[in-house]
Every structure is written in structure tokens, then in C-alpha cells.
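Hello,

I think I submitted the 3,4-dihydroxybenzoic acid job twice by accident. Can you confirm which output corresponds to this input? Input:
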Amino acid sequence: MLGHLLHLAGIDSVIVENRSQEYVVDRVRAGVLEQGTVDLLIQSGVGERLQREGLPHDGIYINVRGQRRRIDMASLTGRRITVYGQNEVVKDLIAARAASGRPLFFQVGDVSVHDLDSRQPTVRFTINRETYELRCDVIAGCDGFHGICRPSIPEGRRRTFDRVYPFGWLGILVEAPPSSPELVYSFHDRGFALFSMRSNSVTRLYMQCAPDEDATKWSDDRIWDELLTRLGSDDGWKPLVGPITQKGVTGMRSFVTEPMRHGAMFLAGDAAHIVPPTGAKGLNLAIADVWRLSRAVAEYYQSGNERLLERYSDDCLQRVWRAQQFSWWMTSMLHRPDTESLFDWRRQLAELEYVTSSRAAMTSLAENYVGLPIT
Ligand code: DHB
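Support: Only one job matched these inputs. Its output is below.
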């Protein structure tokens, strides 16, 4: 997305990716786009298939111990979310990149960044074992939580803030039409579960599990037993069962590194911050970061003015911490805690009652969920 926005501003970039094209296109990841993300993709000319195939949602359900309650986000905020897989967004962006004729290299190895404190930082990498060195003005570290950019900042020049949760999500992809047009977040005595989708024929389901759960130990029958128990609601609703085509466990953590800049290198997305998935903020935060970075870089090339580059980290971190707070709150409210504390349990139930009945509380959840405008 950053490469695309820079291209629209007439700025050269080279994208180096260590995975293969097949991997990034096939790997199922997040699926909920905020209104601001959708608007930006459309305005920047990569929203054509999204508008055709994306599924707009006006609300979500919260299922509290078998009672499904709807939060009408569109009427509370005037905004909505769209379900469209992150890998579909990536596919559209790769097509736009190819059409621009600008360079994008897959399966690049041994990437390292150098001279970050200078006016001419470099990126070194190999393609087919041949070494390249790229001299540039700005490096964008969009290489995810396990990437090389963040660790290239000396430890004394960054601070990290994090929390690891005592649970994970077991996620499955199912060949079955979604039985509800909207997502269902379910709070159940046996633990959290989530009903989502990717298209009119593919359902996506998650359930709370141990952080180190071994997905291969879960037979399909056992997964369905658990999901149907946790998601089923007393109005008769439940997900449709179908063949499971993918299975995987995701850990849950909150993580922020500050600042999101070191000299000529700017971090964006998961390289700088991780949110737990509850609330679906990860992809949307990354898009907001790169939009801001593209504006800052464009201003620098147009006028030599570094004002926006200097403000990049502080401006991003405002939104990042808002999303951190929201994601932590949704996670804590909806998951079964690892303690046997009945106090926490009762407190969570009281909060869920409030969040699904008070217009003020529903509005607060909804405005965070649909996302702040990208400014
Ligand atoms: C999905 C993931 C989320 O984390 C979420 O809160 C909602 C939906 C999904 O993958 O569909």
C-alpha cells in the first residue's frame, strides 16, 4: 500500500519481500476493513474488486452466554465495516504494482539495513544468492513483528511496551455459506468464540485455546463440538458445518515500540505494533501508518520540508494507543480469564450487559470498531 501511494505521488520505491508471491496471496489473515481503510483503497484506485466482492456489514452480534444481541454500528455512527480478506487486498495491490511497472521482488534473502543515521541509508539483500545494495533516502520498515527493521534500532534508542495474554485463538476456514450475514462475538463459560466469514461461501471461525495449543491435536469433530457449543444461541442460530480447509493457532499479544522512527528508517504496521486480534484493528492500523508515511515522504520531496516526517511517530502513536486500548478492552471483556476469580467473571458479565444495552456504551464500542477517520 505504501508503494502504491508513493507511486501515485510520483515517488520511486523498491519493495523487497522475503516470502514468495504464492505465500502472501494464499495465506489467510485478517478480514475486517474499517470504513476509512475502504475509502482509502477506493480513492487510491485499488478498490474496484473490493467494491464488487467485499461484504459491507452494518452491525455485529455479541452473544452473551447464548443470548445474541446486535449492535447496530451504522445507525450509531453512520459508518460500517467491510469483510474482505487481507490477502485479497494484497492481491489487488500486487496487481496495481505490476501495472505501475515499479520494482517488487519476492523471495529476497539476507535483508539488512545500514547507515540509518546518515542521509543515505542502504538496504542489502540477495536475490538468487546474488548480493544487491540499494542506496535510498528513506527506508520503510514494513516487515512485520518478526522482521529485521525494528531490531536494527539500537536498544538504547527504543522502548517497548507489551503484554502477552494467557490464551490464543484456534482459527479454521470452512467451506460453508455464513449462516449469519454479520459477525458473532461469543462470550461463553467454555471460552470465547468468533463467527466470521470471507465470502458468501466461506465461513471463518475462531475459538479461545491455550497459547501453545497444538492444532493438529484437534480433530474436526472435536472442533465442531466446541464451536457449536460456544457459538450457538437460544434464538436457534448456529454456524453451518462444512469441510475445514485450514486450521491454525495464533498467539495473542499487545506490543508497541517507540518511537516508530530511527534516523532515515520509519516503522509501519506490525514492525512497530501488534494488537490482539479481537476487534480486528491490525491491518487497519498498518494502512493508517503507511498513509501518513506516504504524505510525509511526499511533502519532503515536494518542498524539502521534514515537518511531517518529524511528526510521523507521534502522530501514528496516537492512533496506535487508541487501538491498543480498544483491542485490550475487547479481549479482556470477551475471553475466559485464566484465573478462577469469580469476581472477574461477574464483572465481565456486568460489562457485557452494559455494552449490549446502553446506547452510550454501544456507541463507544461501535465508533472504535468502525474506526476513526484516517487523517
Ligand atoms: C476476523 C478477525 C478478527 O480478529 C475479528 O475481530 C473479526 C474478524 C476475521 O478474520 O474474519
